[in-house]
Specification:
three-stranded antiparallel β-sheet
Length: about 100
C-alpha cells in the first residue's frame, strides 16, 4: 500500500502537466451593433464548453475567443454564435461599397 501511494504521488505532477488546457484563439466576425450584442454573446458563448476568454472589438466587428481545443473547436463555436442569432465567420467581411451599387442602377 505504501509503494502504491509513493507511486501515485510520483505520477501526480505528470497528470497535472497533461491537464493543462490546449489553448487556442480565434477571431470571429459578426454584427456587433451595441453593448447589448456583446452582452448577449458574453451571456451565452462564455458558458460554452471549453471557452476561456472573450474579447470584443466593436469597430472591427470582431470577437476574439480563447478556448481549450481539447473541449471545443471553431465550427462548434460558430454553431453556438448562430444559435443566438449572431452568425460568425473567420473571414473579415469586405466593407460595403454603397456608391458602387448606385452606379449600376
Amino acid at each position: 500500500m505504501k509503494k502504491f501511494l509513493i507511486l501515485l504521488l510520483a505520477l501526480l505532477p505528470l497528470v497535472a502537466i497533461q491537464a493543462k488546457p490546449n489553448k487556442q484563439t480565434v477571431v470571429l466576425y459578426c454584427d456587433l451593433h451595441c453593448q447589448g450584442c456583446c452582452d448577449k454573446i458574453m451571456k451565452n458563448i462564455a458558458f460554452e464548453k471549453g471557452v476561456k476568454d472573450i474579447q470584443f472589438d466593436m469597430e472591427q466587428q470582431a470577437v476574439t475567443v480563447t478556448y481549450d481545443a481539447d473541449k471545443t473547436d471553431v465550427p462548434t463555436l460558430q454553431k453556438a454564435f448562430a444559435k443566438i442569432g449572431k452568425p460568425a465567420t473567420t473571414r473579415k467581411p469586405e466593407p460595403a461599397d454603397h456608391d458602387h451599387d448606385h452606379e449600376h442602377q
